[in-house]
Amino acid sequence: MAYLTCGLVDQGVEDYSLESAICKVAGTEFLWYAANRALQLRGGEGYMKTEPYEKIMRDIRIFPIFEGANDVMRCFIALSAMKPVGEKLSGLGNIGLSDPIGSIGLLADYAAGRVKRGVRPERITLAHPELEKHADAVADQVKELSAATEGLIREHKKAVTLKQLHQKRLADAIADVYAQVAVLSRVTAIYEDQGVEASGQERFIADSFCSRAADRVRSQLRQIERNDDDEMTSIAKLAYKRGEYGYALFAD
Fold it and tell me: Is 193 within 8 Å of 145 (Cβ atoms)?
């Protein structure tokens, strides 16, 4: 994703803020996951000062927080994608979606159904034929993402800016769509340079990642329709109001 985003910069694309936000969230959270798993695999020795793991884990914990906390970045990603969709809908008036940067990037256009930068609205045309099934799956996800975004705006109107659980779902779905586009772009370039048979493990990486990412996108979009948000919100409000853990840990 970072390579693809840098390519947009090199091509003179003026606004790449949305893609940068996606890269920041995905990169920092994967880095944290990798460090956590490395410490887990090292076991108790991972805590020893003679080993690098505890320091690595402590040092990288800041990355999901600074330069835009990832929770805030997800809101930015989702609201940026919602804005052009809201502008297309008639009869809603000004739905009040603020545009934090002033314009939008590639994935906001995806959500609006106006796919640009070498990708046509019907399907991805520049992917290698060996990757066609994944390219078609991405096109289907874009349509589903657009429909889900439009449905949220129609249902909640201005209040959609407060629906942070839905915003997280949209942001994660958008990020996975962008990640699949990046994988298809990179593997297509490798295929064209080296040939399909000589490209090694790239085919397996593309198949595995795109299939898993597609499942995550579908899961996030399903949860927009079927979720337990009301229950979770009630639990959180009660816990906040109580101000403490409300159940006895030990019998009197």
Answer: no
Contacts for 203 with CB less than 8 Å, ≥ 6 apart: 130, 187, 196
Which overall architecture, per CATH, does domain 71-225 show? Up-down Bundle (1.20)
Distance, in Å, from the CA atom of 43 to the CA atom of 245, rounded to the nearest integer, reads: 31
Instruction: Give the angle 132-134-140 at the CA atoms, nearest 5°.
Output: 105
- The 3-state secondary structure of the chain reads CHHHHHHHHHCCCCCCHHHHHHHHHHHHHHHHHHHHHHHHHHHHHHHCCCCCHHHHHHHHCCCCCCCCCHHHHHHHHHHHHHHHHHHHCCCCCCCCCCCCCCCCCHHHHHHHCCCCCCCCCCCCCCCCHHHHHHHHHHHHHHHHHHHHHHHHHHHHHHHHHHCHHHHHHHHHHHHHHHHHHHHHHHHHHHHHHHCCHHHCCHHHHHHHHHHHHHHHHHHHHHHHHCCCHHHHHHHHHHHHHHCCCCCCCCCC
46 has pLDDT over 70:
yes
**pTM above threshold 0.85:** no
Range 211-239 average pLDDT: 95
